[in-house]
Structures are given as structure tokens and as C-alpha cells.
Amino acid sequence: MAALARGEIAGGRAPARDAARHLLVAPVAVLLLGFFVLPYLNLLVISLMTPSPTAAYLRIFTLGNYTRIAGDAFTWGVILHTLEIGVLTTAIALAVSYPLAYHLARAPRARKGFLMALVISPLLVGVLIRTYGWMILLQDTGLINQALQGLGLRALPLMYNDLGVMIGLVHVFIPFMVLAIAGPIRAIDPEVELAARSLGAGFWRTFWRVTFPLSMPGVVAGTILVFVLTISSYVIPSLLGGFKVLTVPILVIRTITELFNWPGGSAFAILFFAITIAVLWAYLRALGRAAHPAA
Amino acid sequence: MVKAGERRWLGLAAIVLYVFLLAPVVIVVIAALNAGTYLRFPPEGVSLRWFQAFAHSRTMVRSFKFSVELAAIVTAIATVIGTTASLWLVRFSGRFQTVMRLLMIAPIAVPGILTGIALLIYFYAVGLGKSGGLWELVVGHTLICIPYVVLIVSAVLVRFDRSLEEAARNLGAGPLVTFRRVTLPLIKGAVISGAIFAFVTSYDEFNISLLLHGIGTVPLPIELFDYLRFSFDPTLAIAGTISIAMAVLVVLITERLVGLEALYLG
Questions:
Q1: DSSP code of A208?
Q2: pLDDT tens per residue across span A121-140
Q3: Residue B261 CB: number of other CB atoms within 10 A?
Q4: Is B261 close to A96, i.e. CB distance below 8 A?
Q5: Which of residues 67-96 of B touch A (CB under 8 A)?
Q6: Is A67 on the interface with B (CB under 8 A)?
Q7: What is the ipTM of this complex?
Q8: Nearest to B25 among A130, A142, A273 (CB)
């Protein structure tokens, strides 16, 4: 300690002082290792244990949890439906967020802070509160259906189905998508777009050939983020889907908290995580092909 | 480059989207102030009766208090260790910088529900608790608050002019004094802003709480979730209005201290 103190006062670079510096990260490192890395490794191990009706699990190695899921048609249906909702939600969120991101990135400096606040503030209101807001709007006797009936139209089933779930999901993930895309758009020199226009390209041609390709890094980041968040969300599909829309997280939670089948639930969660990574890999590969068609 | 006519269309589209973005939030506040049980147009008048209903609901008030308490503990821990970790990350991490940055951000990059499951089973396996308690929740929440503190504080540290610290050291100040009198005042804005983000993140956290909460330790979002599944009166809107007021405050403070654009668009 004395050497350490001397080293510090003299401003030298004694080895002891270098070691002391690493104390700065020690609490976070311990937390991440002990309560993040290890629990995930443990999850992997549990998924290979035998389920038991009387204990949390039996310490008997088995691949049965995985083979059972892989051979179950109902489970595959839920997996495919979850991926379908994920792809649709991501596509809609991208289409809707792009104009917003463009508008934000090219807004005059003075107004940018305010617009930024409009995009971010919904992000800070708990997802439950926003879902409640949607329930007031979308339910059978909700405001939108009241308005429709007031106009002499038929009420529409807007909630407790895929549509309601996707409205809620798109809403929640727009800010993420906007933030991911706005950065790269802001980095595009408006002169480049101007050059395309002055050479005779129309609005859409300029967009598809210049602006969109240059904003690709943001589009890739945003779509991946939103896709992953969508297929792993639990609150919105359970509330806006009623008990009628089944997704993987709902099924996994049910397996773990209601059926108390921890190994089965762990295996399902890990399998779905692996499928997600495979989907993202295929997506990135397809993007790479599109960018370099010759290869 | 966008022409004037096209800019008008873009502006119009943006307005429609901002309305979509804010609609459910505004609706919750209106529902909180509405006199009737169901929201109708025209509204049945303004009343504070749902604020009273919220204050009289024992489970809601208990969950609200518990959530605030939990968020306060989590904020204190996450801010301190997240700030020191950011200092290390920016200045001393050397060749581990990329790996450690990724690891520190990872808890918000992986699905929260998966982390919740992993923690639930792990706590059981190491015998730390069979039914969730306060400390399990503190650990889980701290895990997902650290990334925000690290992102915000290290963003400011990267732009930090270290000659000021060197000047203090040359004038004889020790490392601790230098930190307290020079470094900390300069990064104060980011630290406060990180703390606020940590508080809101913990207060609104759902996924991890869903799996780790126990009897007597039910954070507000879990209470609201159970409530929403089966009933539908505007008591919920009050909780929502409190949450919305907090969000507005956070945005205003962050904009003043760090600047939203610098934080989110780099």
C-alpha cells in the first residue's frame, strides 16, 4: 500500500498503481461475470437436464428437451407465427420510421432538440402504460370504434388479434428505428442528393439510388434491433393479444412459471435464440448478396 | 435534396407519425383526468377521483412505494459502479476495450425475458433465494441499468480534455482530490443524466421483475400487468400519468445537461 501511495503521489507508473486502476472496473466485472455470464451458462446446462414433476430438475443428462420441441408441430407453429409477426412488424416499422428519421436528420438546428424529445419521450414511458393507452383506443368499445360507429360505420376488431399486437409493437419500436436511421442520414451530404437531382434523377430515383443505399448501415442496425426486440417481447403480445395470440416468449414463460418445467423452458428459449441468430445470419447474407450481386 | 413541394409532404407525414407516437401517451393522461369509467367523446368532465382511487388502493400504493425504493437502491449502485467502470473503459482498458464495452452493453442487447429466466434458475441453483426477494431484483435491475450509465458517461469522457487533470496533478493534487475537484465536476452532467436513466429504467422494468418478484416484493409494472389482464378502470391511468411526468422531466433534464442529439446521434 505504501508503494502504491508513493507511486500515486509521484504520478509514476508503478505496477501496483496499474493494478489499482483495474479496481475501478472490479464491481461491474464481478456483477457481469457472476450474474450475467454464469446464469446464461447455467441456463445452457439446465436445458440438458431431465425435467421432474417433484424437483426443479433431475441431474441426468438428456437431449430429450430439444428433440421433444423439434418434433412438436404445435411448437413449430408458434415459432413460425412469432417470426412472421417479427418480420411484418420490422418491415412496417422501417417504412414508417424512415420519413420520420429523414425529417429529423434534416430539421433546422433550432428545432432538432424539440423533435428529438418528441421521439424519445415515449421511450421513457413504461411499455405497460403505452399498451394501456392503446387498449383505451383499440378495444371493441374503445375510442376508435366509437368514432367509427359515430360515422355510421361498423366497429372493427382492432385488439385481441395479430393486428392489435402489431400496432402496439410498431409503436413501441419506432423510436429505436428512427434513432438508428437518423444518424447515418445526417451524415449524408445533401450535396450528393442535389447532384443526383440536377443530373435529372427524380425524387424516387434519387431516394432508391442515393439516399437509401447511403443510409444502409442505419437500416441494417435498426431492422436487426427491432426484429430481435419484437420476437422477444412479452407484455404487448399478452395484453393486446388477449390470450388469443401465442408467441414464443409467452409459451416459454408459461412452461417455466405455470408448468414449472425449467429444463423444457430453457431448451425452448435457447433453441429460439439459435433460430433468431440463424435468421439474422441469413438476412445479413442476403443483404451482402444484394450489395454485391456478382459475388 | 428535397424540393419545396416534397418537403411539405415529408412534413405532413412527420406530423401524422408524431401524432401516432404520442397518441397513446396523451390518451392515458386524458383518461386519468376523465370523470367517467370509460373514455367517451365528449368526455364526461374533469375529475380527480381516479387519483383518490389510486391513493386508496393498498396494493397499488405498496407496489408504487416498492418500485421507488427499488429504483433508488439500483440507481445508487449502478451510477457509482457504472461511472468508475466508464472511467476504466475509456482510459485504462487498453486492448480489452472492445470486448469489455460489448460485455457492458450486452444486458440490454439480449432479450430481457431470457435474462430473467437465466437469473431465476441461477438464483435457485446457487441457493440465493427460492422465491424472489429485494436483492434478487436489485441485482437483475442493476444489470440492465449499467449499460445506460456506461453509454452516457463514457460518451462524455471520450471528449474530455485531460490537460485539466494534468494541471491539477502538477499543482500537487493527489488522484482522489483531482477526481473530486476536477474530473467529477466536469462529468457531473453525464453522471446525473446516467443516474436518471437508471432510475427510470428500473422503475419501468418489466421482464426481469416478472420472473424475480415474490410475495411482498411486487414492483408496480407487475401489479399493473396483473390488473390490466383482468380489469380496466382508470386507476391505471394515474400510475401512467406519474410515469409520463417523470419521462418529461427526464427529457428536459437530459437535453439541458448532455444534449439529446449528442447522446443519441453521436
A1: I
A2: 888 888 898 999 999 899 88
A3: 18
A4: no
A5: 81-82, 84-85, 87-89, 91-93
A6: no
A7: 0.86
A8: A130
Give the CATH number of domain A75-291; options: 3.40.50.970, 1.10.3720.10, 3.40.50.620, 1.10.10.10.
1.10.3720.10
What's the CA gap between B217 and B208, in Å, rounded?
A: 13
For the cut 80, the answer to whether the pLDDT of residue A17 exceeds it is no
Task: Name the residue with higher pLDDT: A22 or B260.
Answer: A22
As a whole number of angstroms, the distance between CA A44 and CA A270 comes to: 7
Identify which has the larger pLDDT, B255 or A196: A196
B14 and A21: CB-CB below 8 Å?
no
Between CA A248 and CA A81 the distance in angstroms is 9
Q: Write the DSSP assignment of B134-194 as a string of letters.
A: HHHHHHHHHHHHHHHHHHHHHHHHHT--THHHHHHHHTT--HHHHIIIIIHHHHHHHHHHH
Does the distance separating the beta carbons of A190 and B228 come in below 8 Å? no
Kindly report the nearest CA distance between residue B190 and chain A, in angstroms.
17
CATH number of B57-265: 1.10.3720.10
Confidence of residue A7 (pLDDT cuts 50, 70, 90): very low
